Amino acid sequence: MTFENAKTLLEKYNQEHLLDFYDELNKTEQSDLLTQIENIDFSLLENLKPENTASAKKGKIEPLTKAVTISDIEQNIDKYRNIGIEEIRNGKVAAVLLAGGQGTRLGFDKPKGMFNIGVNRELYIFECLINNLMDVLKVAGVWIPLLIMTSEKNNEDTINFFKEKNYFGYNSDYISFFVQDMAPSVDFDGRIYLESKSRISLSPNGNGGWFSSIVRAGLLDKLKSDGVKWLNVFAVDNVLQRIADPAFIGAVINSGCQSGSKVVAKANPSERVGAMCLENGMPSIIEYYELTDEMANQRMDDGELAYRFGVTLNYLFMIDKLEDINKVKMPVHIVEKKIPYIDKNGCNVSPEKPNGYKFETLILDMIHMYDNCLPYEVIRNKEFAPVKNADGVDSVDTARELLKENGIEI
Ligand code: UTP
């Protein structure tokens, strides 16, 4: 793209400021900047219009009508486990770790999985997850393929860390890395930020692009030719989660559903987690900020909260259906974030509070694209220890306490 073409394009979208420092750049930086401009998906900016925001499009929300609860699971545990183990042994299950996020709330400048949650010994978040997956290996006797999503920002660090730690004992033949896409960040008026004089501010485009990124990386063909039918997709944060959990897999298969979601009873009605619900009669997830007070406190006839099942970001998806979903455009969410940038004088600014928006597609929207999804309730203190914040709720301290409570030496 030439300078003139870039200028015309940017004028159309009111983004000419991206060329403010062009004359100060050397030839390589100039051409690099023009390439970045050429690659911007300007259609994302359309999402800033109030009528286009993803939440504005939500349908009729109602409480769930069915879920597999802890007591149901206790009664059927052997049956579920056996079905799940069989499926794993037959090579039909792979796991996908979403680790492309930036973990801004934790405030750790490396990939979140590299955080040492140990106290008296080194115990990294990635290591906790691998250990949890190895527990299944011990029972099923086969390696489970593990796909790890990174972003351009943390791919190298993540891969090097796994190599340096010898994959924490996992068989590296079964681990693949793939990189997700990036999207531009904008200020509150929709003007794209510059990260430096020659670089546009880009950030990972949310965890909803995981499947399209798998396809783009050429990994889907491999999964299919290996006969994989189910993907257990999970977040990097939760150090206690069971991965490729045979009972969860078995319960979903037994129910005939095409997807499943591990849920926990919410700690309180206004806990900041998405809750499973029905939207226009189909499975869906409502974010905590979309629940009105009345809905958050609504009770069912049995006295339980109507929206009591919080999602843990641990889902099971049938691959066939994902291929259909991949043909549909995902809703884009606008998320307020702190975005470092350079101002019009060329000075670096590191904001202390949110100063703009990022555009993200979210995995939770995939649930609504399935015809059915089995909510599968797990015991909160045994399987839910998310490391989101530096302190307070869902923090390093709370996760450490829960690890200890579960007999894990830290
Ligand atoms: P979060 O919603 O906690 O986002 O991610 P985040 O970017 O990691 O953290 P904050 O909000 O800045 O503090 C939930 C899961 O989705 C992954 C994260 O790595 C985490 O496992 N994720 C998030 C991605 O893989 N890519 C993204 O673009 C965003």
Description:
This protein is of the alpha+beta class and 410 residues long. The protein has 13 helices and 19 strands. The chain has helices at residues 3-12, 27-39, 70-89, 125-140, 155-164, 210-216, 219-225, 246-255, 293-297, 319-325, 364-367, 380-383, 396-405; strands spanning 61-62, 93-98, 146-150, 175-179, 182-184, 186-187, 194-196, 199-200, 202-204, 230-235, 259-265, 275-279, 282-286, 309-318, 333-337, 341-342, 348-349, 356-360, 374-377. The strands form six sheets. A seven-stranded mixed beta sheet has the order 4-3-2-10-14-11-19, with helices on both faces. It has a three-stranded antiparallel beta sheet with strand order 1-12-13. Strands 6-18-15 form a three-stranded antiparallel beta sheet, with no helix packed on it. Helix 3 crosses helix 8. The longest helix has 20 residues, at 70-89. The radius of gyration is 22 Å and the shape is globular. The relative contact order is 0.17. The mean pLDDT is 96. The structure holds uridine 5'-triphosphate. The site of uridine 5'-triphosphate (UTP) has 19 residues, from loops.
* DSSP, total strands: 19
Give the helix tally. Answer: 13
Radius of gyration: 22 Å
Shape verdict: globular
| Main sheet makeup | 7 strands, mixed
**Heterogens:** uridine 5'-triphosphate
The secondary structure category is alpha+beta
Tell me the span between the first and last alpha carbons. Answer: 53 Å
Strand order of the largest sheet: 4-3-2-10-14-11-19
Strand content: 15-25%
**Mean pLDDT, nearest integer?**
96
Low-confidence stretches: none
Proportion in helices: 25-40%
